[in-house]
Predict the structure.
Amino acid sequence: MDSIVIRAEGLSKQYTIGRREAPYDTFREMVLRQVTASLRWIQNRGNNQANGSRIWALKDVSFEVKPGEVVGIIGRNGAGKTTLLKILSRITDPTKGFAEIRGRVASLLSVGTGFHPELTGRENIYLNGTILGMRKGEIAHKFDEIVSFAEIEKFIDTPVKHYSSGMYVRLAFAIAAHLDPEILLVDEVLAVGDVQFQKKCLGKMHDVASEGRTILFVSHNMAAVQRLCSRVIWLDGGAILKEGATNEVARHYLQYGLKNNGERIWDDIPTAPGDEVVRLRAIRALDVTGAVRTDFTVREPLTLEMEFWVIKEGYVLDAAFDLYNETGTALFSTVDNLDSPWKGKPRPPGIYKERCIIPGDFFNDAEISVTFGVVSNVFEKVHAQIIDAIGFTVIDTMDPSGVRGNYHRPWPPVAVRPRLHWTVERAPLDKKISLINDSSR
Amino acid sequence: MLGIRSRTRRTLRQIKNRIRTGYFSGAHRTLVQPSHGWRTLDLGELWAYRELFWVLALRDIKVRYKQTVLGCAWAIIQPLMGMFVFSIIFGHWVKVPSEGYPYPIFVYAALLPWTFFSNALSESANSVVSSTNLITKVYFPRLIIPLASIGSVLVDFLISSGVMLFLMLYYHVDWHLHLLALPFLILAVAFAALGIGTLLSALIVAYRDFRYVVPFMIQLLMFATPVVFPVTLVPPHWRWALYLNPMAGIVDGFRSAFLGKPFNRDILMLSFCASVILFLIGVAYFERVERRFADVI
């Protein structure tokens, strides 16, 4: 009993959807929404169901965590990972069930919580540190370490609004990385910053974990989960689908999550992922004949097709894909920027359909998942994004006219296997070389 | 089956008791469970988070006049401009009686607490929704947000009180022992403003309509408070209605303190109690709905 630091029993969380709406941006929007809402209310009068559609974001989740364990929580979008973390960190109450946590908890649901742009780096370290639950003396003690970890020594007394986004994130993470709790609850915060810094943070977290602290780590980054966690809880539809040793769960997860969808469609704008500017409509992987497929050979070209709605005028938008393989390694990112007729120009509202052709002889054999998003490059804002939107398998058919030629051994587990052109030349030798003579002399 | 249930209940109680001991100590235990209905305010927890209170208050103070040319002069300009305008309109043209004191100092003595009250009220009412990023990302007793929000307003008040001293010198108003009542009066204003402020801040989380009520309410309340006119202007048989507004008694109390006129003790006590009760109601409602903030904000 005493060797358990987190015990969750039957944790459930119910949300009422429909009543939850994004905050208003403008007065006009507010009036508009108030009017439509009251019309809807009049229409639905006496019909309780319409106003109160409830969903269980988390359903009867029970588990135990022992001290010093690093437990990963994986699952696709909407599986309840963040809800679970929010309940454990007491941001929101469970609807049913309870959890008992022993020890000082710090939760990192995002980095830079409470950062104020007008305040300097120094002031923000104290502000953010206190918000995350550090004591003043503790922050003072670790101050220099935080600053040097963030590599912002020169700008420590500059307001953070003048920081580059990289510096901002580095500072934010440096503070978080120096938290010293007994239990750390971390949500996908590593999805920010440059790769080099991500590695540094992962390393720091690894140190924390090896010091015997308990960590609950929510992530889509399978590689990070595999590196950090000894045990994984896999959530799906708000419930635990599988729990166990990392490698075993990870294997099932990747097979399950990726194999069965080559296409995702959202036909209802209000519930489609996105914000008030952009909503996603569809994404699919197509073969040369235009059919949706989930299996491709390494030799085949394939087309990623995406559709989205632009609802609001006046935004310069770029559509982008990130591709990951089954180990969570990012293969590449691509953006429509170069070829788009709206490059640098605001897009008028409408339904946009974009295609990106990936040539044959490019992928390695892999399970590939596609993250798809529409971003505003000017404001560095992600308007709509779907992580692991679709997945497909690339199979090596050992075709000798492919990249492998007649190389018949397993191809190394690298990110891509592009068709590159080699030139092979030969020059004749001047004289005959005899290695045996050389060595005997 | 029954035995098991009573055992869990007992352990739950034990755990709850353990929570009371030390929030940040190593032996800290947290119980996460659904909460319903009215809750008692956990003062121990609030105390444990006192550093956060200071940090948030300090943040507001630091940020308030960043990137302004005049800086904290703005704290003085607001009541001073009010004083000029009211002195001309009500003192000079309308000739509102000012109990024998020069109208400017008479109105400034009331504008000081009134500005404090109205700023504290609007700051605290909007404080929770403007802290959405904190509320959805990290746990702490939410009550700290509205409480800390009046920090910067209090600093403004203290700065603008400096002007009062100059006015007292200029108009030859003597220092009086009544000034010793000021800390209590300030506390009463804070209680009244925070009472309404926390209540509104919790309501605004769920119903943004109340956001639009705040400026409107402040405007109306000002005329229900003897700021530009003396209490004596109100017919005696209607004064009870005036004193339903606790700020009426408190603002009059400020005048007595600054100008050395006699205190209306009963009314002052009544107003003070009313402020405290307002505060308790505000806090009680806030605590009741606090747990839902992250879901509805």
Observations:
- The beta strands of chain B are 29-32.
- The interface with chain A takes residues 12, 15, 24-26, 28-35, 51-52, 55-56, 59, 62-63, 66-67, 132-140, 208, 291-292, 294-296 of chain B (CB under 8 Å).
